[in-house]
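Blackboard transcription, Thursday session:
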Amino acid sequence: MQCESRLTLDASAADYVVDVANVVREPALGGDRAADLSRLEGLLDALAVFSRDPAVQVYAVADRSLLTDGRLTPAERRRLDRWYEDRLLEVLPRADDRILELADALELKVVSGDNFLDFHRAYPWIPGSRDRFLRPFPESDGRIGIRPRIMPVPPEWEVSRKEEEGILLEAGVLRRWAPSTHAFVLSRDWRCPEPGCPLFGAGDRPSNALPRRRRDKVVCPAHGVPLTDTGPLPRRTQVKVVMDGTVRGRFMVTAGEPLAVGRAPAGGGVALGAWIDDTAVDSVSRTHVVLTYDGKGLSVVDERSANGTRVRRVRPTGDELFPLYRGVVWKLRQGDSIVLHDRLELLPSGRRFVFEEDATDGTVGFRDAGSAAGPTMVGVPTGPSGQDSHRDDAGERRQGPPGADGPFEPHDGRDEQS
Ligand SMILES: [Zn+2]
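(Written on the board underneath:)
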């Protein structure tokens, strides 16, 4: 699959954030050259396998220096230029703090071998994290593999020393935005005053990239200048179509626009036949379910399917299946997926995996690698900001900064439907 089809700056579509320069300049990932763009292609292939999603969507961020790195071939540099112009790649002076900002705001998983010691105080979810970071490594056959990693918990003195070295804290860059601010920023259409800005330019397409924060200002990641708020951006959330454990397709649900999903919905909607084979689509009704997004969470209703619908809820003790009674609106919560039949599920945008610790080498593995992608990926029915749920599958709550919840309370649904 073409590398380009896996790159996106759409905050509501991305699953991972990747430090492009870090990957391209890592000789351990193969090849003889000091910088090699094919390492990024190998990494994207590895992510597709790892996530069982051939069209895995990656938010790629690169240090500006990479675009002029003489160790790349001219063709590779032109390709990077093109990605930047085509809104497939974000380019800025320094990538690491931006990567964490994206991970923090969008709950994207980070692919990196870096320990990010400079940032442990600013992002308290880093030390000890076991579900937010992945590391690329060379497989024995020369290809690139991906595995989850547990982030180290460094002694306090080590963090302090690293912070003194970091100039970013002095610049006041690292004050986190509260999740409610993320939600606001992502709900607006921003424009950059810089002519031809690929991220927030004056095109007719609204930008779904994540603006940066500089103190109290919303700025362009590429140009560092304040952005202008030109109005509301429709909020959207992504749903994946998973058959036999593999992601076959994805679609967006826009807030306030109910979306029919089925074999061939009469009044328009998502026709699953485009992605799945005939036998799998036979037991799906023309309009099987209707999905609704309210800007925070997804709801599903089955009004007339022939074979019914179930909701799979991921629990630490094992998945539970609930029948979705005809006409009853089910508000999906984190971990719920919609089961159309045993081979076919709709999975709300899932940015969290369920891992089980493998203490032997500091990595973690899938809790249930043998089953379908539904149970291994914990769906997060949230808006583009992904801030609605900070609960991991072990039932722990991530510590957020005081007062961080704002008007957007975690959409937990704990007391619903049970
Ligand atoms: Zn700009």
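Lecturer's comment: The two ends are 42 Å apart (CA to CA).
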